[in-house]
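Give me structure tokens for this 132-residue protein.
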Amino acid sequence: MTRQIISTPRAPSPKAPISQAVRSGNLLFVSGITPFTLDLQLAKGDFEAQMRQALENVRAILEAGGSSLRNVIKCTVILAKREDWPAMNAIYQSYWPDRDYPARTAFEAPLPHPDFLVEVECVAECNDGENE
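Here you go.
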């Protein structure tokens, strides 16, 4: 099985020693993606701004790897604060409006940067060009 590192300038480059994603066969494994903008600034605003930025970064990486949000099989959302759970659910639903949700795990845990409120990772099937 071929292993390919996925990297796109449409999402922030990781500061840690990780790849944005790794494709293995027809599966794309997206690393924990944070709410940084392309200029490596934390998304301005509250939890909602950070959640949307993290999901937009995930979308860009998925598309670079030949996939899309529609093809996400499993998603993990890590929240810095449990009280952001309702906002996370509302935003998450807006990224899968047809309600064809991937399997998901979400939990509260300390994140690597004190100002991060969310981190998102996922596994998706690749469709090579059939992006949403």
